[in-house]
Write a structure and sequence with these properties.
The chain is of the alpha/beta class. The chain has two domains: 9-141, Rossmann fold (3-Layer(aba) Sandwich); 155-304, HAD superfamily/HAD-like (Rossmann fold, 3-Layer(aba) Sandwich), CATH 3.40.50. Helix content is 41%, strand content 17%. The chain is built from 14 helices and twelve strands. It has a ten-stranded mixed beta sheet with strand order 5-4-1-6-7-12-11-8-9-10, with helices on both faces. Strands 2-3 form a two-stranded antiparallel ribbon. Helix 13 links the parallel strand 11 and strand 12 (287-289). The longest helix is centred in the N-terminal third of the chain and has 13 residues, at 80-92. The termini are far apart.
Length: 306
Amino acid sequence: MPASLDGRLVVAISSRALFDFEEENLLFEAGDDRAYMRLQLERLDRPALPGVAFSLVNKLLAFNAQAPLVEVVILSRNDPVSGMRVFRSAQHYGLPVERGVFTRGTSPWRYLKPLKAHLFLSANEADVRSALAAGVPAARVYPQSARASDAHPRQVRIAFDGDAVLFSDEAEQVFQQSGLQAFQLHERDQAGTPLAPGPFKPLLQALHRLQQLSRDGMGLRTALVTARSAPAHERAIRTLMNWQIDVDEAMFLGGLSKGEFLREFEPDFFFDDQTGHIESAALHVPAGHVAAGIANRRGAEAALVP
């Protein structure tokens, strides 16, 4: 029988999200792929430094000590030759990464479907948007983000924004169109009505299953970090209750900057749809932008206006 990834949490990740290839990427972005390939080949025996998502991947793979619960697949615009360095770097750090797709400059997002990926992390915004449009939870990593704390070696910590990430952007649309007071009134009136799922609900569900299956001492801690405040907090909590999914911490910050709160939570990764929140967070923790919801649609439309 062919191999199968059924039953596993599948994370697809670009080489630049897993390792620090920023110096090499300057050649790639300049369009000189031959020079890029030569440089990677010259550095074949030099392990790349850990990248922004390294801690998340390293800890998730630790769930496999007794059973194959997590699969990490490299999904990269790199060429196959440069891919050798990616695999050697993974081997150097003891990461059991065996599968990879290398597309030499073309978008690899279409391979997410046969992988049945629960998450795609990449530094390429176009690839991330394509993945989100295809229904795959995806985020554009900020390579210059602070690296994760090493204070919790046996616990994966992940923080999520709410609206347009875990939840739909229904409430965010009210806020964008009518302001904060209308948003608060709308959410108070709809407190008993669960929000529709956002793009990252499937990942939260998969993490919930992983947490239940783990028997090897690895732990998982999640946090909802949102600009909501009372009374809008209740609908968010009731939505999670309706999904039968618990989060360990919830921060209703009422518009306060999220960065310093995330610094104290010490996540291995934080997901948010607002670039301002990501820029604040990236000073303290690994962070990724989820290009979903009305704020990002407006941004994309504005970019098309001559």
